[in-house]
Amino acid sequence: MAAPDSLAEDLVAANRILAERGVLDAYGHVSARSPADSSRFFMSRSLAPELVTAADIQEYAADSEPLGDARKPYLERFIHGEIYRTRPDVMAVVHSHSDSSIPFGVSRTALKPVYHMASFLWSGVPVFDIRRERDDNDLLVRDRPLGEALARSLGRCSCVLMRGHGMTVVGENIPEVVFRAVYTEMNAKLQLQAMGLAGPLTYLSEEEGRRATESNRPTIERPWALWKARALAKK
User: Fold this and answer.
1) N or C: which terminus of the chain has fewer CB atoms within 10 Å of its end residue's CB?
2) Is the pLDDT of residue 213 over 90?
3) Is the overall model pTM greater than 0.90, yes or no?
């Protein structure tokens, strides 16, 4: 089944927005749960995000395999499929090799919200270390058992870091997951900058995080409308 036109357009926009903002480069991917069948999801075939068009969107079954489409899928599609399987509240997923997130996945310094735009990080940012699951690995989540392990590490959080690899962010829709991917990268950058100043750092409290997240949620359409218009104008 083809993705609904509006969903396909949003997936194209999401890929291009995140590429423009440096959250994705030639690698990384964005998906959305199917509105018609919650066990399925839509995502581009294996392609650099900036080049994705509506014709590139594939439908994936519960086993994370494309349905009736022989074109090459992303190797790490299991990240998406297993998160959808374990988190019914998640409707969109971004996997990124975000530059600024990498240091927090390979050190003992936790990624925490330093400003209100990344308040959703109040839920915690666990680190998935693939070596705990499989010694003989290439850092890629290339099958369902590794996808299941990543989903367990994510738990009920909004973001999970992946040691030596990047991050995966989830949301209730495409605009929200794009917002979260953009501001997770920005928060990581700002936290790294602040760590070079006199400390200790003052992070958002759990209560501030909860309240700011609820305040931001109704405004997400504002940046989404701007980013989407810019991204699609470059067809």
Assistant:
1) C
2) yes
3) yes
